[in-house]
Amino acid sequence: TSPIAWLRTRFYYLLIRLYFDHEFSIEEFTRGAKQAFSVVSKLLSQRKLDLLEELVSAEVLQVLKEKISLLPDSHRDALAADIDAIMYTTEGDVRIYYDDDGIKFVSILMCFWYLNGANLPDEVPGEAKVFQIVFGDENTKEKKHLLTANYEFQREFTEGAKPDWTITRIEHPRLLE
């Protein structure tokens, strides 16, 4: 990320700690986001959408129900991310906002890069190249794809609101479009 974006996100983390959650830690949040990403992506892959109701917003769940039913098996398999297969994680954007009723929200977009062994074609729809990594020697080749996903986490910080983060956006580019 650019130095300006890095400084901006650090400033927002400071605001979150000062005004919303004195114990907020981006390191702890990132660990939880990785776990949530792994669980949600596996449930998506297995089409167990009813188990996502407490983790994902109702609007996102409705869109997922429509999209998952149309996916080919290879793309559905590629959605699953084992927590040990997450190669890199970074925050994409942090927002703090209030609605017209004075309700306070914090939103953090997390970007994940993960390895997956799904049987994807070399070219996926949209003619975007998927990176492939081959492990092992000639006899035991294992091909993995380096895939990306963006998950947005949102939490309401209004007094009396549940202290839970909810996923309000799920993007698996070239897979879940």
Automatic annotation (TrEMBL):
Superkingdom of origin: Eukaryota
A single GO molecular function term of this UniProt record: ribosome binding
Annotated protein name in UniProt: MAIP1 protein
GO biological process: protein insertion into mitochondrial inner membrane from matrix
GO CC terms in record: mitochondrial inner membrane
Taxon lineage: Eukaryota, Metazoa, Chordata, Craniata, Vertebrata
